[in-house]
TrEMBL record:
Keywords, alphabetical: Antenna complex, Phycobilisome
Protein name: HEAT repeat domain-containing protein
One Gene Ontology cellular component: phycobilisome
A GO molecular-function annotation: oxidoreductase activity
Origin superkingdom: Bacteria
InterPro entries: ARM-like, ARM-type_fold
Keyword Repressor: no
Length: 223
């Protein structure tokens, strides 16, 4: 017999150890009940990274149903919760999150939030937009990512290149412009240089390019 939503939420509220909290969040996520979405969003702000990651996975599994609650309940004060919410929105890839992702990518004070938004905004499912809106949204995304290429933080520049690559792969009309931008980009960081070359090779080749950079000893972040 399935456990009720009220019981699942109560189990989260009365969890008395980090392990039990993670297990309770996992149970709620596994139930895939739309009524549990606000509680999963609340779990993003718990002082428990395992619970937050579990909540992100649950929200992503809920897909489109989680988008508006995530946008409505986005935490303006807890940057950790905001970063997890941005990651969930980026993974769901619904273009209704475009404005939030663009704003976070360019202006959020937390680097973790900016990285998640910068990478994710290039991966949106553009076909969900009407034809009249799609080109405008893609152009706004390109312009924002190009501005971010001047960021002082190398990891955010790295994420911008990942975003441009994804945008180019899904937007043939912008691909020549994106390739030209990448070819003329001069960056002093070896990891960013390698990411640029990988993006160019991927956009130019119909075959998948391996996720590796022979000879580079610089740690490569997730984007």
């Amino acid at each position: 017999m399935s456990t009720s939503l009220a019981t699942l939420i109560a189990d989260i509220d009365r969890a008395d150890s980090p392990e039990r909290l993670i297990a309770a969040v996992q149970a709620l996520a596994a139930a895939r009940l739309e009524g549990g979405i606000p509680t999963l969003i609340r779990a993003l702000g718990f002082n428990n990274p395992g619970a937050a990651v579990t909540a992100v996975k649950g929200l992503v599994q809920m897909g489109e149903a989680a988008v508006m609650p995530l946008l409505t309940l986005l935490d303006d004060y807890n940057y950790g919760a905001r970063a997890y919410a941005i990651r969930a929105l980026a993974a769901i890839a619904d273009p209704r999150a475009l404005d939030v992702l663009l704003s976070a990518a360019e202006a959020d004070f937390a680097p973790s939030v900016r990285r998640a938004a910068t990478k994710g905004v290039g991966q949106l499912l553009w076909l969900k937009l009407a034809d009249s809106e799609r080109a405008i949204a893609q152009s706004r995304t390109y312009d924002t990512l190009v501005r971010i290429l001047d960021d002082a933080d190398w990891s955010i520049r790295y994420a911008a290149i990942a975003g441009l690559q994804a945008l180019g792969q899904s937007t043939p009309d912008l691909q020549p412009q994106i390739l030209e931008t990448l070819r003329t980009l001069a960056d002093s960081d070896i990891a960013v240089q390698a990411r640029v070359q990988w993006a160019i090779a991927t956009l130019q080749s119909p075959q998948p390019v391996p996720n590796s950079f022979p000879g580079s000893q610089t740690p490569i972040p997730n984007p």
